[in-house]
Write a structure and sequence with these properties.
It is a single chain. The two termini are about 15 Å apart. By secondary structure, this protein is an alpha+beta fold. It is about 25% helix and about 30% strand.
Length: about 90
């Protein structure tokens, strides 16, 4: 998981006996996911990192959830996410 950059090594912690322990944490840039919620009058799109942190949030209010404009908006937001992440990170969207 270290080689895949899903985990990050922390500073060694020195105890009284034996080798120092090295804490491991999730790498926030290790993976990303996109969440989409379509409600009756609002759609929310989130970009979330590997630790659950919200990196970006978009919202669209509408009078009625018509599929055609909502799908166009989702496509626009997915393109925004790809631009925001850049080449190295966009392959980490799950």
């Amino acid at each position: 998981m270290l080689d895949d950059q899903l985990l990050s090594k922390g500073a060694p912690v020195r105890g009284k006996v034996g080798q120092p322990s090295v804490p491991l944490t999730l790498n926030p840039d290790g993976a990303f996911s996109v969440g989409i919620h379509v409600g009756r009058q609002r759609m929310d799109v989130l970009l979330v990192d590997f630790t659950g942190g919200v990196r970006a949030r978009w919202a669209l209010d509408y009078p009625f959830p018509d599929a055609e404009p909502l799908l166009a908006e989702i496509g626009k937001r997915l393109r925004d996410i790809r631009r925001r992440l850049g080449t190295a990170q966009r392959d980490r969207v799950q």
